[in-house]
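Worked Example 4.2. Consider the chain below.
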Amino acid sequence: MRNFEFKNPTKILFGKNQIENIKNEIPKDAKVLVLYGGGSIKKNGIYDQVMAALAGYEVSAFGGIPANPEYTVLLEALKVIKEKRSRIYWP
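Applying the procedure from the previous section yields the following structure tokens:
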């Protein structure tokens, strides 16, 4: 095995009304790509809450991502990124 270092900083906002705080974590000029799986995010209202919290940002969405997606699905998401020239924010 080769030696390597891997750093994966993650910040998770837990609790009531935290979705509206995501705008404080994203630079003002960022373009945002929202990735999600099936339709439950729309049925339970989370999608609408996230979109409302991202008002003022240029937002694109890519849905229908299955659990353990195959490479071809990821390539479709990459197409969206390239078409929109999205700058994904990754702190």
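Residues 45 and 69 are 24 Å apart (CA to CA). The radius of gyration is 15 Å. Compare this with Example 4.1 before moving on.
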